[in-house]
């Protein structure tokens, strides 16, 4: 049974008014502390990511990649410094930012089907009390189709391989219809087919002008897919490589 | 007998609506804990001449909020917070009780209940709490499910899993308080956990899990009371044994099916 309720947005939603600065994420001297022992998980990070850019965050485990993504998603508190997402504090433009967690952070034994996992991506636009309807499920079905999950959409999420679980999480992030996608290790230990599909989806997102930030510990053959690569080590930024043609664009 | 049947149905509904959250959030200990922490509330209410129920209700809600606050700080795990608050408040109840003239028999009845002696007032309270739980869970069903399944995504979209955790804890407290004097600690704890744990093995949809759980609870209560009459034993204990047997049958059947080799 569905009740049609007035739209009541979840907390801290932005007004929808954004200055057209061309910048998706702006970070100035950012420090973030996630443990009690006063070690910086992010230490004096300064970086600007333009709208429509695709950026890879590269570093070993503990380098601060996940912390950067979670801070950008508004999930962690900032100790000092500034971070703006579409000109607002993180966690304000919730409908424009989608965070894809690492697979290990999800309880895959939870009694939930793939379709129901993916439809949670529509909740941000439904707000309190409203349930997803035909429109939302149609969108879910088209994403399941795109990621080749339609045949198994009614299976319990724990019955899937790692690659299919990762695709289900990506499908949810796509249903969110965000302008900024924060993907945490989406290609970690996935099959060839999933890598291929991810490559195609990332290309499509780039064409649509979406901003994508991916955390990964190895770039592999995807290096050429990114406009720039930010290297992190022990919470510090140790360099940023720009793609050659992106460099030329900047110079031009 | 009419009151007993109605009470069984309503207690089964309440426990089956909040039970899946208890199991899925891995806080199975909580029903038992709240059932014990209401003791100081009951004793204080008795000392100042208030109705036991209100004393129990206040103590249960304080426990729920205390557990929520402790675990929200992230430096104490939820099961540890439950354990600390539960033992401390129960100890306080025992200390206070030794200063009153409450008899062991009255104390025993308060905590262990007797479903066959349920009165109209208790039934009205249980029914009122059923309405509160049904409305809350109906309106917030997608938010409560997401906050339980993936609290990080729930936080990212702003649907406040921190507040929803309090909502669930308070619903559990209401369920336990309303049922405890009719059903007792043992039966309330069992009805919160076992039917939900059974139904979670049988469905991937929360609504169906609730329905199966209600069915399992009512079936166990009916069969348990019948066996209690037939063999002249405790009704609560027989119900718990029946519901545990149903769980075991479903679990064995499921693990047997899962261990069969898959045809290629």
Widest β-sheet, arrangement of strands of chain A: 5-6-7-3-8-9
**Main sheet properties of chain A:** 6 strands, mixed
**Beta strand % of chain B:** under 5%
What portion of residues of chain A is helical? 25-40%
Order of helices and strands of chain B: HHHHHHHHHHH
Extended strand count of chain A? 9
Name given to the CATH homologous superfamily of one domain in chain B: ABC transporter involved in vitamin B12 uptake, BtuC
Keywords, separated by commas or semicolons:
heterodimer, A: 252 residues, alpha/beta, Rossmann fold, six-stranded mixed β-sheet, three-stranded antiparallel β-sheet, 23% strand, globular, disordered C terminus, B: 264 residues, mainly alpha, ABC transporter involved in vitamin B12 uptake, BtuC, 11 helices, 82% helix, 0% strand
Give a verbal description of the structure.
- The complex is a heterodimer of chains A (252) and B (264).
- By secondary structure, chain A is of the alpha/beta class.
- Chain A has a single domain, classed as Rossmann fold, CATH 3.40.50.300.
- Chain A contains 7 helices and 9 strands, in the order βββαββααααβαβββα.
- Chain A has helices at 65-72, 114-119, 123-126, 134-146, 162-175, 192-207, 244-251, and strands spanning 23-32, 42-50, 54-58, 80-85, 97-100, 180-184, 211-216, 228-233, 236-242.
- Chain A has a 6-stranded mixed sheet, sandwiched between helices. In chain A, strands 2-1-4 form a 3-stranded antiparallel sheet, with helices on one face.
- The longest helix of chain A has 16 residues, at 192-207.
- Chain A is globular.
- Chain B is mainly alpha-helical and 264 residues long.
- Chain B has a domain at 2-183: ABC transporter involved in vitamin B12 uptake, BtuC (Orthogonal Bundle).
- Chain B contains 11 helices and no strands.
- Chain B has helices at residues 2-24, 30-47, 52-72, 78-97, 104-112, 120-139, 141-149, 151-156, 161-200, 206-231, 235-259.
- In chain B, helix 2 (30-47) crosses helix 3 (52-72) and helix 3 packs across helix 9 (161-200).
- The radius of gyration of chain B is 19 Å and the shape is globular.
- The mean pLDDT of chain B is 88.
- Classes of the chains: A alpha/beta (252), B mainly alpha (264).
- Chain A binds chain B through residues 9-13, 36, 73-75, 91, 94-95, 97-99, 101, 105-107, 110-113, 116, 120, 123-124, 126, 128-129, 131-132, 154, 156, 172, and chain B through 24, 75, 139-143, 145-146, 148-150, 152-153, 155-160, 200, 203-206, 209.
């Amino acid at each position: 049974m569905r009740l049609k309720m007035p739209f009541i947005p979840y907390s801290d939603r932005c007004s929808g008014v954004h200055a057209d600065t061309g910048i998706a994420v702006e970070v100035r001297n950012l420090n973030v502390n996630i443990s009690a022992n006063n070690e910086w998980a992010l230490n004096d990070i300064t970086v600007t990511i333009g709208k429509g850019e695709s950026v890879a965050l590269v570093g070993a485990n503990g380098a601060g990649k996940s912390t950067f993504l979670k801070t950008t998603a508004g999930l962690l508190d900032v100790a000092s410094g500034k971070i703006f997402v579409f000109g607002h504090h993180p966690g304000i433009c919730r409908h424009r930012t989608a965070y894809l967690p690492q697979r290990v952070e999800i309880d895959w034994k939870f009694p939930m089907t793939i379709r129901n996992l993916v439809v949670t991506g529509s909740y941000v636009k439904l707000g309190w009390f409203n349930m997803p309807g035909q429109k939302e499920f149609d969108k879910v079905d088209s994403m399941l189709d795109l990621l080749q999950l339609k045949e198994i959409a009614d299976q319990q999420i724990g019955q899937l391989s790692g690659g299919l679980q990762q695709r289900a999480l990506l499908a949810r992030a796509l249903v969110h219809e965000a302008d900024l996608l924060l993907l945490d290790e989406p290609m970690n230990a996935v099959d060839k087919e999933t890598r291929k599909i991810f490559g195609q989806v990332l290309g499509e997102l780039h064409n649509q002008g979406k901003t994508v930030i991916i955390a990964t510990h190895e770039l592999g053959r995807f290096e050429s897919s990114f406009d720039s690569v930010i290297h992190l080590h022990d919470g510090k930024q140790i360099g940023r490589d720009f793609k050659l043609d992106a460099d030329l664009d900047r110079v031009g | 007998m009419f009151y007993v049947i109605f009470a069984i149905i309503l207690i089964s509904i309440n426990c089956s609506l909040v039970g899946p959250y208890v199991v899925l959030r891995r806080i199975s200990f909580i029903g038992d804990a709240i059932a014990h922490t209401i003791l100081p509330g009951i004793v204080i209410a008795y000392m100042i001449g208030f109705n036991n129920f209100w004393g129990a209700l206040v103590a249960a809600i304080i426990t729920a909020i205390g557990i929520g606050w402790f675990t929200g700080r992230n430096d104490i795990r939820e099961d540890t917070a439950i354990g600390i608050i539960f033992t401390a408040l129960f100890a306080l109840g025992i200390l206070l009780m030794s200063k009153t003239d409450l008899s062991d028999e009255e104390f025993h009845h308060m905590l262990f209940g007797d479903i066959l002696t349920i009165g109209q007032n208790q039934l009205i309270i249980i029914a009122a709490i059923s309405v509160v739980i049904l409305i809350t869970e109906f309106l917030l069903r997608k938010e409560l499910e997401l906050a339980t399944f993936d609290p990080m995504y729930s936080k990212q979209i702003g649907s406040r899993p921190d507040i929803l955790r309090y909502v669930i804890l308070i619903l559990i407290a209401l369920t336990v308080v309303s049922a405890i004097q009719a059903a007792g600690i043992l039966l309330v704890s069992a009805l919160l956990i076992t039917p939900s744990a059974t139904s979670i093995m049988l469905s991937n949809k929360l609504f169906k899990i609730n329905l199966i759980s209600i069915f399992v609870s009512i079936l166990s209560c009916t069969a348990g009371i019948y066996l209690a009459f037939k063999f002249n034993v405790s009704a609560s204990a027989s119900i718990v044994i029946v519901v545990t047997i149903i769980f075991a049958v479903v679990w064995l059947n499921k693990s047997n099916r899962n261990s069969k080799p898959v045809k290629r």
